[in-house]
Amino acid sequence: MAEIYHATATAPVNIAVIKYWGKASTKLNTPTNSSLSVTLSQDDLRTITTASCSASFDSDALWLNGAPHDVSNARSQACFAELRALRKAKEDQDSSLPPLSSYKLHLISENNFPTAAGLASSAAGFAAFVRAIADLYELEETPTQLSRIARQGSGSACRSLFGGYVAWEKGSREDGYDSIAVQVAPESHWPTMRAAVLVISDAKKGVSSTSGMQATVATSTLFPNRANVIVPARMEAMKKAIAEKDFEGFAELTMADSNSFHAVCLDTIPPIFYMNDSSRAAVRVVEEINRCAGKKVAAYTFDAGPNAVIYYDEANEDLILGVLKKATDHVTGWSDKYSRISPKVPD
Ligand code: 2P0
C-alpha cells in the first residue's frame, strides 16, 4: 500500500468592516476595491481541514461536513495548480523529497459554526484548504504569499489567513500578483474588541455574492463612486481608527460602509435585497443604544444576508448584550440565540 501523507489546518471566519463588493477580473478574482476585516475567534467559528495525498489516490476530492463536493470548478483548480507548482519547485531543488506534487489530493473539511449561524463559510473554507495543502507540502511561503492563492478560491478567504485586523489590498498589476492580504494590526493591538452575531436567518442567500457583485458592477450608477472614491478614503480612515483604537471612528466607518454596500445592492438592476425588516430592526436598536450612550458604543454590519454582526468594546458588553437580549423578545424574526464572539485568535 502506498504511503499516505497528511496535514491538518484550521482557519477562522472574518467579518469585513470595509466591504469587498465587485470584481475587477473574474478570471483572477481580483476586486474593484480594497477591503478590511476583523478575524473572529477560532474557538467560535472556524473550518478545520485535513489534506492528504498519496500515489494510490485516483482523483482530487473534497468532503465538506461529510458530503462530497465538486473540485472541478476553476477556483479549486486554480488553488491546486498554484500550490502544486510551489511544491514542484521545492522537489526540483531537493531530489530527496517525495514527489507529492504529482499525487492526487483528498481534503476533508468541517465547520464548527453553530448550526443556526448562517454565516458565510467560503472565507474560512478556502483559507483552511490552502493552509492545509501548504502545510502538507511543507511550503515556506508567508501568509501574505498564500493569500494570493486563497484569493483565487474565494476573495474574502485571503483575509482569513491572518488573525486580528486585516486588509486585502486590491493591487494594480494586470496579473493580480499584488492583490494580497496583509495584517494591519495583530489582535493583541486592540484585544477588547468583541462581536455579537445576531442570527436572523440561517437560510442560504438568494443571490450568490459572485453573481450579485457582477450585477452591481454592470448596472449600479452609484457603484463607481463607491469603489473609486468612497472606499479608498475609508480604507485610510479605518486603518487610522484601528491604529489609534478609536472605537467611535471604527464604528462610524463600519456602519457607513455596510450601508453603502447595501445601497449599491439596492441600486443594482434588478435590485438585490440582503437585509430584511428584522435586519433593519437591528440597525434601529444599535442606533438607539448609541443615542442613549451619547456616543458610538456599538457598530452594526451586514454581509450578503440578513444576519447582523455587532462590534463593541468589552467595557460595554453588559449594556450591549443586555439591550440585544431584551430586544430579541420584541423583534419578530430574531433568533433568541446570539453568539458573543471574541475576535481573539493567535497571531
Ligand atoms: C466581504 N462579502 O468583504 C464581502 C461583504 C460579502 C459582503 O466577501 O466571489 O464569497 O468567492 O470572491 O468572498 C463575499 O464574497 O466572493 C464577500 P467570491 P466572496 O466579506
Give a topology summary.
Blueprint: E1 4-12, E2 14-18, E3 23-25, E4 30-31, E5 35-39, E6 46-54, E7 61-64, E8 67-69, H1 74-93, E9 104-111, H2 122-136, H3 143-153, E10 165-169, E11 180-185, E12 193-198, H4 209-219, H5 223-243, H6 247-266, H7 277-293, E13 298-302, E14 308-313, H8 317-328, E15 338-341
Parallel strand pairs: 7-9
Antiparallel strand pairs: 1-6, 2-5, 3-4, 5-10, 6-9, 7-8, 10-11, 12-14, 12-15, 13-14
Helix pairs in contact: 1-3, 2-3, 5-6
Bound molecules: ligand 2P0.
Ligand 2P0 is lined by residues 16, 19-21, 29, 35, 120, 122, 154-156, 209-210, 303-304.
The CATH architecture of the largest domain: 2-Layer Sandwich
- How many domain regions? 2
Low-pLDDT sequence parts? none
Helical fraction equals 25-40%
Order of helices and strands: EEEEEEEEHEHHEEEHHHHEEHE
Give the end-to-end Cα distance, rounded to a whole number of Å.
39 Å
Q: What is the CATH class name of the largest domain?
A: Alpha Beta
Attached small molecules: ligand 2P0
**Cα radius of gyration in angstroms:** 20 Å
Major sheet details? 5 strands, mixed
SS elements, strand count? 15
Structural class: alpha+beta
Mean pLDDT: 92
In what order do the strands lie side by side in the largest sheet?
Answer: 1-6-9-7-8
What is the 3D form?
Answer: globular
Which fold name corresponds to the CATH topology of the largest domain? Ribosomal Protein S5, domain 2
Residue fraction in strands: 15-25%
- DSSP helical segment count: 8
